[in-house]
Amino acid sequence: MNNKKNLVEIHCKNNGVTKLYEAGTSLLEIYADLKPDMKQGVIVAKSNNVTKNLDFRVYKPKEIEFLGLESPSGQRAYIRSLTFIMYKAVREVLPGLRLRVEHPISGGYYCLLINADNKLVQPTAEQVKQLKVVMDRVIDQDLPFELDTISTEKALEIFRADKAFDKVALLESVGDIYAQIYRLDDVYDYYDSALAPSTSFITLYDLRLFHDGLLLQVPSASDSSVLEKFEEQDNLFNAFAEHAKWNELMKVSNVGDLNITTKPSKGQMQLTGGNAGLLITLAETLQEKKIDHIADMVVSDPKRKVVLIAGPSSSGKTTFSKKLSIHLAINGKNPIPFSMDEYFVNREDTPRDENGDYDFESVHAIDIPFFNQQLNQMLAGEEVELPRYNFGTGKREPSGKKIKLNDNSILVIEGIHGLNPELTAQIPEENKFRIYASALTTISIDDHNCIPTTDNRLLRRIVRDYNYRGYSAEDTINRWASVHRGEEKWIFPFRELADVMFNSALVFELPVLKRYAMPILSQVPQHSPAYSEAHRLLKFLGYFNMIADSDIPSTSLLREFFGGSSFNY
Question: What's residue 272's pLDDT?
């Protein structure tokens, strides 16, 4: 360090230490000097609340927070780095095949191998073994992940030569002059954010045959020394697979495809560009057809009198229950929709979480005995008065709404705990039909960057909370981790108990939500703990060409979140 002009002040949030460093010092060098206690190691860092690679060099004062696998940013960086290693192995072991990372499932990521004719190639056990040998070798070599900023034209030349046309479509449709691409030895790839410094930071993974492809297994977020637990999730897999077929029908698998398909142009009346309206119509029609199919499933057995709709936050459960009710009515039934929220216990009786706060996500926040009592009374043909929960006073009140079922009546009950066996333990199984609803995003940024399904739901919630509940994006993001913990505990463990899954995601929705979400996200101040996530989501939305909502029908499930719906909420 030569003189004070060349020194910059660095404050480390992990241990509270503030220290001067020579300008140009890397975050990895600062980490090695400060040695903060990181139980699961380090993989990336936040610099002034923006996630950066550890080889990022500081030239101005910064607040730094080092992140490991216990953080969402660290998890994402680990998965991106592992994917790059796998991609390099595929190029070496199976030249000519394309690697596509489809979606997370069963404690890992479902991956496909595709040939030059765009046909699926099923791997063999021997090929999996060979891929792992190469991946292990690359990890042992401790090769750096090098980030280069080059002209987009040069990047396009590289990806065209590699026949990586998913990245060509993405970069061409986004239209930036420069692109940041990564290099691992002799292989180039594109990733939407930070990677590990080098391959030796990838300490644990596994690769196995799975359905028609591969399952890339990753470490547990809570304990990086063990893999995420593998579990069969056939319902979830089938829901993803169904929408993947829809995407194939619409010729939209990645963001580049979507941007090209919806780019404004004149005189286009086919789904090859310039017609967002046609894409919206196709997607809405496919979803409507699925709801009609579910209604047919319900009415196929006359003993089914109680439809239970569950799912995580911002899955569109409310609109889905209304649309399903219409389809049940078309089938000659008398649907009676209502919300499980009306059966909350009085506020003072709500269970507490480990911090002593009210745990509204708990199944025991519902008055289970009273709920079962009323359902059994209705199934027995008795007239009952539904309750109404007053969220202002925290008390349950009489609603004045009385119900008596007839032979054609079907109760359509929406609430996050609908699949939990404890909720309806006193109701005969033959009377119940369970539906799990969630927004399972099936398009990807490109073949190696899938979109987390939680991002779709979080953006929906940010827009809805701002428009209808008076919450800022900062409020919603700060609350999201707690919401997600509740989902992991009370919702996700029961989703495979569903009789059917409904995927509420619409292929066009992220370009539509972009118009509403970006101004809201831009209001989050840099000093806020929510800024890092807001910044990430803004960058993510930047990949999409905006689509106006004028062609979206008033009955669309998506209108639950930004308005213009013909349904009452």
Answer: 40
Structural domain includes residue 87: yes
10, two tokens? 């660095």
For residues 288, 294, 300, 304, the Cα torsion angle rounded to the nearest 10 degrees is -130
In a shared domain, residues 352 and 289: yes
Q: Are strands 213-217 and 206-210 parallel, antiparallel or unpaired?
A: antiparallel
**Helix boundaries (H) for 355-397:** 368-379
| Distance (Å, whole) CA 322 – CA 329 | 11
Report the CATH number at residue 199: 3.30.980.10
Nearest to 403 by CA among 430, 421, 383: 383
Q: What is the DSSP letter of 416?
A: T
Query: Measured between alpha carbons, how far is 17 from 31 in angstroms, rounded to an integer?
Result: 11
Return the residue matching tokens 């669309």: 556
- Nearest 5°: CA angle at 160, between 158 and 161? 65
Token readout for 242 is 């169904």
Work out the number of other CB atoms within 10 angstroms of the CB of residue 200.
14
Six-digit token string for 93: 């072991």
Q: How far is CA 147 from the centre of its chain?
A: 26
Name the token pair of 238.
């089938």
Instruction: Give the total number of structural domains in the chain.
Output: 3
Residues in Cβ contact with 32 at an 8 Å cutoff, skipping those fewer than 6 apart: none
Whether residues 296 and 429 share a domain: the answer is yes
Would residue 321 count as lying in a domain?
yes
Greatest alpha-carbon pair distance for the chain in Å reads: 87
Beta-carbon count within 10 A of 366 CB: 23
Closest CA to 544 of 159, 155, 173: 173
Contact 313, 483 (CB under 8 A): yes
SS3 220: coil
Question: Are residues 478 and 342 located together in one domain of the fold?
Answer: yes
Measured in degrees and rounded to the nearest 5, phi and psi for residue 415 equal: 175, 155
Q: Which pLDDT score, from 0 to 100, does residue 2 have?
A: 45
Helix (H/G/I), strand (E/B), else coil: 288: helix
Q: Which residues contact 137 (CB under 8 A, 6 or more apart)?
A: none
Torsion angle (degrees, nearest 10) of CA 72, 113, 508, 522: 30
Task: Quote the CA–CA distance of 69 and 50 in Å, as a whole number.
Answer: 17
Reduce the DSSP state of residue 415 to 3 states and report it: coil
Looking at the fold, whether 54 and 78 belong to one and the same domain comes out as no
Measuring CA to CA, which residue among 478, 453, 526 is closest to residue 236? 453
In 3-state terms, what secondary structure has residue 386? strand
Q: In 3-state terms, what secondary structure has residue 137?
A: helix
Q: How far is CA 221 from CA 205, 224, 227, 231, in A?
A: 13, 6, 9, 16
Do strands 444-446 and 449-450 pair parallel, antiparallel, or not at all (unpaired)?
antiparallel
pTM beyond cutoff 0.70:
yes
Would residue 568 count as lying in a domain? Answer: no
Q: 503: phi > 0 → left, psi -120 to 50 → alpha, else beta; which?
A: beta
CA torsion sign for 524, 527, 528, 533 is positive
* Residue ranges in the chain modelled with pLDDT below 70: 1-5, 264-274
Q: Answer yes or no: do 438 and 545 share one domain.
A: yes
> Collapsing DSSP states into helix, strand and coil, what is residue 165?
helix
